[in-house]
Design a protein that fits this description.
The chain is α+β, with helices and mostly antiparallel strands. It has three domains: 165 residues, no CATH class; 72 residues, Helix Hairpins (Orthogonal Bundle); 146 residues, Histidine kinase-like ATPase, C-terminal domain (Heat Shock Protein 90), CATH 3.30.565. Helix content is 57%, strand content 16%. The protein has ten helices and twelve strands. The radius of gyration is 49 Å and the shape is rod-shaped. 20% of the residues are buried.
Length: 461
């Protein structure tokens, strides 16, 4: 109840209504005190009329009764410039305060009312006001404050009781209104979400906006759009998964067929027929590329790349191993390899996966340069900043074609050379992301291409 939206709204509403009633309570009690004193002045004025009617020859017993009924000890009336004691009786003590109600400000009335509530002892006070119906210039009385305080407390308790009833009633009405207008529709949205989560491929479970509250309806429409897109994406993912399975099976069988064909090409190369001698290398190259494409497709389709096992390794030594392997593949081609890496630079990575990342980038650069038939250079450099190790693989090749740059890291679309599958960079990106790093194309053009790898340092502990 307390943790629910409607329960908290009920509590807050009660608190706020009570706070508003308290703010109203203080001026209300102040107004009640003023009315009480004015009533005493009016009763004292009526009592003084008896003295005026008898030309001040009033019986002492009647005078005492009039003062008792008025609730005062004496009455002083000023009809012109002179003040006249109309009724009087012995005053039991010293007057401690005088209150003039003629020109009292609201703050003064509130201050005096609060003081009367706080001070519990009965005091003798003088009250000054204006006679009603222009019966004089001024009237003043002397009275005790005990009756006034009791009346103020009784009035305050009644006001607080009424405030409590109003607060509870208002809070209950708002409670049921909130449950009807907000909580129930929100629970409906939650139920739709739970139903959709159990079977997101089922388009029938997509929410249909029906809320009357504008903000809630906007939320339902946004949820509907999100669910629609997710359902379509899941359907597409399922179709792609099925297609991927089919491609993997075809690639597997095709690889076996091409491997057998590759064995036959070894015998064809020994033929003395000029035509066969001229055509055999092209056939071998085509079969080799087809086998490589099948193997890459199978490797990518398995999607079983293990999580990296991070350890500290010497980057300069790992890069030297990569370059040594590439030098064997280069052979007599006019391609030079160089490395600019601090000898003591230690990075935190999976040695095998980082080797594959750098080797793949260097191999792509080498193939791009060899494809031009011109000389070229490939360099691997590294540096570190406050947050990451930065590795750059750059070449002086012809640069990437525009189409390759547009789909650079997309499988089967980002191939930079004729016959390429585009899987190499997709796999490299996946390995780098597994380390929490990034792979970016820093530049590409006639002056060459450069890829930058950033591996976050994290903790070296």
């Amino acid at each position: 109840m307390v943790n629910s939206l409607s329960g908290r709204f009920l509590i807050l509403t009660t608190i706020f209504v009570m706070l508003a009633e308290v703010l109203i309570f203080v001026p209300s009690v102040s107004r009640f005190r003023e009315s009480f004193l004015l009533a005493r002045l009016e009763r004292a004025q009526i009592a003084s009329l008896a003295a005026l009617a008898t030309d001040d020859l009033i019986d002492p017993a009647l005078e005492e009764e009039l003062l008792l009924n008025a609730g005062v000890y004496n009455v002083v009336l000023r009809r012109d410039e002179a003040r006249q004691l109309m009724l009087s009786s012995p005053i039991p003590g010293e007057i401690v305060a005088t209150y003039d109600l003629r020109d009292a400000s609201a703050l003064t009335l509130i201050r005096d009312a609060l003081r009367r509530l706080v001070v519990s002892e009965s005091e003798l006070v003088r009250v000054i006001g204006s006679p009603s119906r222009d019966a004089g210039l001024q009237i003043e009385v002397t009275m005790q404050t005990d009756d006034l305080r009791r009346a103020m407390i009784d009035y305050g308790l009644r006001i607080l009781a009424l405030s409590a009833v109003i607060s509870v009633l208002t809070a209950c009405l708002l409670f049921f209104a909130v449950r009807r207008l907000l909580v129930k529709p929100i629970k409906g949205v939650v139920a739709h979400i739970q139903s959709y989560a159990s079977a997101p491929e089922d388009a029938r479970r997509i929410i249909q906006p029906s809320a009357g509250v504008r903000e809630l309806r906007e939320a339902e429409e946004a949820l509907k759009s999100l669910q629609t897109q997710l359902t379509q994406a899941l359907r597409q993912k399922e179709r792609l998964a099925q297609l991927g399975g089919a491609v993997a099976r075809v690639s597997h069988d095709l690889r076996n067929i091409l491997t057998s064909a590759q064995l036959f090409t070894d015998r064809i190369e020994t033929s003395q027929d000029p035509i066969v001698t001229r055509m055999a290398p092209k056939l071998v190259n085509s079969i080799t590329r087809a086998v490589s494409l099948c193997e890459s497709t199978l490797a990518f389709g398995r999607a079983e790349e293990p999580a990296p096992v991070l350890t500290h390794l010497n980057l300069a030594e790992l890069v030297e191993d990569v370059l040594e392997a590439e030098r064997l593949a280069i052979g007599d081609a006019p391609v030079s390899l160089s490395a600019d890496i601090p000898g003591q630079m230690m990075v935190r990575a999976d040695p095998e996966q980082l080797f594959r990342v750098i080797s793949n980038l260097v191999r792509n650069a080498r193939q791009a340069i060899v494809g031009t038939g011109a000389a070229g250079e490939i360099s691997v450099s590294a540096r570190s900043d406050d947050e990451a190790w930065v590795i750059e693989v750059a070449d002086s090749g012809p640069g990437l074609p525009l189409k390759a740059r547009e789909h650079l890291f997309q499988p089967f679309q980002g191939g930079a050379r004729k016959g390429g599958s585009g899987l190499g960079l997709a796999i490299v990106l996946e390995l780098v992301r597994g380390h929490g790093g990034t792979l970016d194309l820093a530049r590409s053009g006639p002056e060459g291409t450069a890829f930058v790898i950033r591996l976050p340092m994290g903790t070296l502990a």
